[in-house]
Design brief:
This protein is mainly beta and 241 residues long. It has three helices and 18 strands.
């Protein structure tokens, strides 16, 4: 199992940062002005690790972290049974219905899905913050709400079957598409999505003797692992195509 996946699975806390790049100025007469710099809005996770890893059965994790160091990305998920609640799919499509959906287009922040099964008007297809991944590309986007192509307006809220337009679902996503080939791709949703992350601050580690490990006959004076910092994981979007 990759080193970063182990770190996520064993996290003591997870901080999520998806803030846009915004400039704020206050004029002399105290009128605030803001400006937005368009970016790919990469996911950022700050992982705090408890000092509970034991050296004797974590050396493979340490070796993997030392190997990838600060410059190699790894694909990870939050599908671990301890964390699958974090990005669980909130809509009502079955797994088979999700598998049948395909991407008709993804322009700007507007995703259009086709092969939508017939449902009642109030059927919830997606809820806000649901993750959608395009094909095998490890770059999750989150649902903001339904998009109306006639008025070119976005509504914050659930994407229901009543927002179906001409047999397709139009959804506003949290960030613009930066994947070059999306047409006819399938989608993955919820905690099954994968993230492409690297750790630009890769912490060092300290061994603290005294992590005793015993069996019926032998007690070993082992060590606990203490990391020098949190793991600041950053989405690797430079290889997106």
């Amino acid at each position: 199992m990759p080193g970063l996946q182990n770190i996520i699975n064993k996290a003591g806390s997870i901080e999520v940062n998806r803030r846009k790049v915004v400039g704020v100025q206050i004029t002399r007469n105290e009128i605030p002005r803001t400006s937005l710099t368009p970016t790919r809005q990469p996911w950022q996770f700050i992982i705090e690790m408890p000092n509970s890893l034991r050296w004797y059965n974590s050396r493979d994790i340490i070796e993997s972290l030392d190997y990838i160091d600060r410059y190699t990305p790894q694909q990870v998920t939050f599908a671990n049974t301890c964390l699958d609640w974090m990005f669980a799919y909130q809509g009502s499509f079955s797994g088979a219905e999700i598998s049948a959906l395909t991407v008709a287009s993804f322009s700007g922040t507007v995703l259009r899905l086709n092969n939508v099964p017939v449902k009642s008007g109030g059927f919830v297809c997606f809820k806000q913050n649901d993750l959608i991944q395009i094909g095998a590309n490890p770059y999750p986007f989150t649902v903001v709400g339904p998009y109306n192509p006639s008025t070119q307006a976005t509504t914050l809220g659930d994407v229901t079957y009543s927002t179906n337009t001409g047999g397709d679902l139009y959804i506003t996503m949290n960030r613009p598409n930066f994947i070059t080939s999306v047409t006819a791709s399938g989608i993955t949703v919820g905690s099954s999505c994968t993230f492409n992350l690297f750790c630009p601050n890769m912490p060092t580690y300290k061994l603290i003797p005294g992590g005793y490990v015993g069996n019926d006959t032998t007690t070993t004076n082992n060590a606990l692992i203490e990391f020098s910092d949190s793991f600041n994981l950053y989405e690797w979007v430079g290889g997106a195509a």
